[in-house]
Design goal:
Blueprint lengths: L8 H14 L22 H13 L4 E4 L5 H11 L2 E4 H12 L3 H15 L31 H36 L4 E6 L5 H9 L16 E6 L5 E6 L9 H6 L1 H4 L1 H4 L2 E7 L5 H14 L7 E6 L14 E3 L8 H13 L3 E7 L4 H9 L3 E7 L2 E8 L1 H7 L16
Parallel strand pairs: 1-2, 3-5, 3-6, 6-7, 7-8
Antiparallel strand pairs: 4-5, 9-11, 10-11
Helix pairs in contact: 1-4, 4-5, 5-6
């Protein structure tokens, strides 16, 4: 088993918090040290008996494992222990199912649940009686292998998965349209990412003056929330909150949420929010960095935002793209806004433009995006001074007086 998959006291604490978030009451914990998982029961016969005694002594009705179990291991454990068995992936999916509010969020969670359920169906059906037209005896012409309930359910679930994937493709198309509209309106996008419960929603509220629910619990935010943030007199950005990451995040859950998480690739800046008060903040940060790489967003400029710095005693982290804040009190948030503006400023140019009256719509677009600094109506057209990003500069350069395309080395 890889090191990242092994359980320890910290990951068990996190599992307890996940169980409580899902609505369970944790009454006992058990950790086993062994070189490799038991193929049959994951923990071995001796530990199964110890766990069974613990379950009976505490009148438990659920056993949750910190690692992902194979379908056969889950079936064996459920039979041997006499209670329902969940692994970490199943528990996270249960929490996501409780928290999803938007249609998109519900679609993504439902898809992940069916993908999780499909290979585990075998253990859920013990009867597997062949279906015939009249139970035991069959009319002439209907005798044969028939179809088991298991096979019927598998076909049904595969059909549901295909339908959900098609629905999520529609969601992606809508997101692509929204993204192009944002680009047309010249709104840079800043995405908040981080480990679950790092304080992303609290930071969004602090920066934008919003009142999005921000509770001290895991996976409080599932549905993406976007708000406008004014950096200065010249510039405004869209600040977007995202679902929190966690170690051992189920692969099919990441796949299902790609419609949401792929937005990170198109963001202009990532704000990686890190809970500095957590003793394992560096491990949590590496989990997030790994998932960002998996999503193909590792080249997006990133600011590491160390949150809850008011709870930290010691030398605060520092560096070129590092800011320490307390999202709850607002400490350091002004510096963070300045840092975002600095990082985006390299993409902006203050430019004079002259538009004919027939292109007045372009001037309205500059007004709406907040890029307009000065406006003068003249007899032969409209003269403006505006702050343009690279995309708008390329789109509007034809109206820059005296502008000439720079020549390539080979053309000089």
């Amino acid at each position: 088993m890889e090191r990242g998959e092994r359980s320890d006291e910290r990951s068990m604490e996190e599992l307890s918090a996940l169980a409580e978030t899902a609505g369970a009451e944790v009454v006992a914990e058990l950790i086993q040290t062994r070189a490799a998982p038991d193929p049959r029961s994951f923990i071995g016969d001796g530990k199964v008996q110890e766990l069974k005694d613990l379950i009976e002594a505490n009148s438990c009705d659920l056993a949750v494992f910190d690692n992902e179990l194979t379908p056969s291991q889950m079936r064996v454990l459920s039979e041997d222990l006499g209670v329902r068995v969940l692994d970490r992936s199943g528990l996270i999916l249960d929490i996501f199912a409780q928290r999803a509010r938007s249609r998109e969020g519900k679609l993504q969670v439902e898809l992940a649940q069916y993908q999780y359920l499909l290979p585990r169906l075998t253990g859920m059906w013990t009867h597997l009686v062949r279906q015939t037209a009249s139970g035991g005896s069959s009319p002439i012409g209907t005798r044969g292998p028939g179809e088991t309930q298991l096979e019927t359910d598998r076909r049904h679930i595969r059909r549901k998965i295909r339908n959900l994937e098609e629905s999520l493709k529609d969601v992606r198309r809508v997101r692509d349209t929204q993204r192009r509209l944002r680009e047309k309106n010249s709104f840079p996008v800043v995405a908040l990412i981080g480990y679950t419960n790092a304080g992303k929603s609290t930071l969004l509220n602090c920066l934008t003056g919003s009142d999005i629910p921000a509770n001290d619990r895991l996976f409080d935010t599932l549905d993406t929330t976007t708000r406008r943030l004014k950096l200065n007199e010249r510039q405004e950005v869209l600040l977007s909150d995202t679902v929190g990451f966690i170690r051992k995040l189920p692969t099919h859950l990441v796949e299902a949420f790609k419609a949401t998480l792929e937005e990170l690739k198109y963001a202009d800046i990532l704000l990686h929010v890190i809970d500095l008060s957590n003793p394992e903040w560096d491990v949590q940060a590496e989990v997030v960095d790994t998932l960002v790489r998996q999503l193909g967003a590792e080249k997006t400029p990133c600011i590491r935002v160390f949150n809850k710095c008011d709870r930290y005693f010691g030398i605060l982290p520092h560096g070129e793209d590092t800011v320490c804040v307390s999202a709850k009190s607002g400490e350091g948030c002004g510096r963070l806004v300045e840092k975002i503006a600095e990082m985006l400023s390299g993409r902006l140019r203050e430019t004079e433009l002259e538009f004919p009256w027939s292109e007045a719509g372009l001037v309205d677009g500059l007004k709406q995006s907040g890029a307009l600094l000065d406006l003068q109506y003249e007899e032969d057209g409209i003269r403006v001074r505006a702050v343009l990003d690279e995309e708008n500069f390329g789109r509007l350069k034809a109206w820059i007086p005296g502008f000439e395309e720079p020549k390539e080395d080979w053309d000089q």
